[in-house]
Amino acid sequence: MSIDLDRCTGCEACVVACHAENNLPVSSPDQAEKGRTAHWIRVDRYYEGEFPDVKVKYRPVLCQQCDNAPCEPVCPTYATYHNPEGLNVQVYNRCVGTFYCANNCPYTVRFFNWFAPEWPEPLQLQHNPDVAIRPAGVMEKCTFCVQRIQRGKRDAMVENRPLADGEIQPACVQSCPAEAMAFGDLNDPESKVSKLAGSGRSTLLLGELGTKPKVFYLERAK
Amino acid sequence: MAASAPELLPYAKIREDLFRPLSKGSSAYWTTVFGALSIVILGAVAWGIQVRDGMGVTGLNRPVFWGFYIVDFVFWIGISHAGTLISAILRLTDAGWRKPVTRAAEAITVFCLMIGGMFPIIHLGRSWLFYWLIPYPSERLLWPNFRSPLLWDLVAILTYVTGSVIYLYLPLIPDMAQLAEHNVPWRRKLYRILSLGWTGSDREWHALERAMKLMACIILAVAISVHTVVSWDFAMSIAPMWHSTIFGPYFVVGAIFSGIAALLLVLGILRRALGLELYLTKHHFNNLSKLLLLMSLLWFYFTFAEYQTVWYGNEPSEMAVFASKIRGPYAPFFWTMVVCNFVVPFILLGIRKLRTITTAMVSSVCVLTGMWLERYLIVAPTLGNPRMTSASGIYTPTWIEFAITAATFAGMIVLYLLFSKLFPIIAVWEFKPHPVEEE
Questions:
Q1: For B280-313, how does the pLDDT look when each residue is reduced to its tens digit (9 = 90+)?
Q2: What is the CB neighbour count within 10 angstroms for residue B31?
Q3: Do A99 and B125 touch (CB under 8 A)?
């Protein structure tokens, strides 16, 4: 995935889309105050300059799907592991809730189900049937909309054709009005996301840690 | 100085003095037991609520996913080093003064491990599934992840519990055989079964002596490795101020430090409660105080080394944690810790005139408080200041966590009181001249 920071307006459409797509619970105000909200993607705000000459920069942060993910080796039950496609996946059924993965994630993008999930009426009627509802006591995080990836691959297989670049779009990418986000196959050098990731504007979040993130942030070279 | 005072007493008197507490139960004793038991029940209720409603009833949040439970875990596992480690060192070095001290220490170890070992289960989001961490060929067709430090932890602690139970049990055998001789029927039966048919022959004494020596060697290695592995739960991560190479030895030192403090405190209480002034003399407290002082200095050295390097390195993400401890929201705890762990023991125990049984007790309470805070300061500030500053948070525990923590202290009291009713808290046979000692 690539995210163009020069295009991001911080509108948080991606956050809302992710909520709807992935059956994320709605936190009550007092739980939110305690820091227990679950947003698989969040928009961090950075301020540059002195008031009144202030510039705001936005950075959507989601699971970086690291190739060298710190969360993976520490899980004692293989609840979080690297799947053959290179996704960092979370198997809810295996999770016993040691919290270790979340503590070792430098991006703090892992979310815990503190209680059984709840939705105010009538939001429970719009659950996505392709996504599991997570019980209390397990960890969860961005999946790169794995359900959409699976469906895309299946559709292509049924129609007996290769997947087209940009055919699969996670909810956040699809909903971005500024088209700041792109999603595709990094193994295909001709894909849009590969080209963007290889461009001079490409940077990594906390890249110095050697986690090999697969989200590339594009910004103007300074 | 009355260095070997207990050894000079006639054996019949020693026997009587040390077996007496087993049969007499005062009202104060039972009040304490039931008082402590009610706190344990309160803690159990709190845990029940947590299991029923979810981890949300605790003060944990994002990013502080570990709190009191992990602090308690490290604290109790730390204290467990009292026991076995000190008793093993003293046994192996043949320190003559150790005799009245070792069993009390070994019992602390076993009970602390039982309590500490519960916390990894209590802190789980789905604690009823804790057995998924146990490596056995299961119907799930999935082995646990042996790369996870939590699995090393599980193995280390189970090994340590097993070892320390054996290590406590072996020297109990001759005493239980004596107790089986004349007693009320149910006790006679209990001790006879537990003493495994001990008759006191030369061969048995030799075997016991060898077994205890061997266990002392093994338990020493196990104890050091256990707390190293506990420290690796933190050090193996990449979180700022957790990822530190000295955490292994730092934790071992801290563990022995808090262990000696716990031992001193327990001995001081036993001395008063059971009237053991003749057996636990000033000499014992003096020696243990000096050990405590030594460990206090070592602890300070390690703490200084740890913080000094972070401060000098001046790396932003580490400095955020550092600042929150030194002058941020955790500063009151940090400086209390320094006073409790270093200033108080250094003054009270470092100046010979001030080193008495009372000041040893005061220092011990301070050190136990300080070492609990030390673990708190390792867990909470690091998690509260992750690398992504936008995700910073603060941790405020709830009554659930306080209740469960209090319950473990009460549980320790209950276990120890029951133990002291069933077994002599000082090894009686060690005062009896027997063939092995004379060889």
A1: 888 889 989 999 999 999 999 999 999 999 999 9
A2: 10
A3: yes
DSSP assignment letter at A69? -
Exposed, middle or buried: residue B118 (CB in 10 Å: 0-12, 13-18, 19+)? Answer: buried
Residues whose CB falls within 8 Å of the CB of residue B86, separated by 6 or more in sequence, listed in order? B101, B105, B256, B259, B260, B263, B291
Q: Which residue has the tokens 């295909």?
A: A188
**Mean pLDDT (whole number) for B248-265:** 93
- Residue pair B14/B428 in contact (Cβ under 8 Å)? The answer is yes
Q: What is the DSSP letter of A131?
A: S
B419 inside 8 A of chain A by CB: no
Give which of A119, A104, A93, A96 is closest to A38, Cα–Cα.
A119
Query: Is the torsion defined by CA of B190, B194, B198, B200 positive or negative?
Result: negative
Task: Determine how many CB atoms are found less than 10 A away from the CB of residue B72.
Answer: 24
Considering CB atoms only, which of A61, A76, A108 is closest to B133?
A76
Nearest-CA residue of chain B relative to A78?
B145
Neighbours of B210 (CB within 10 A): 11
Name the residue among B84, B79, B233, B219 with its Cα closest to residue B152: B233
**Is the confidence at residue A131, as pLDDT, over 90?**
yes
Q: How far apart are CA A72 and CA A78, in angstroms?
A: 8
Which residues on chain A are in Cβ contact (under 8 Å) with B149? Answer: 74, 100
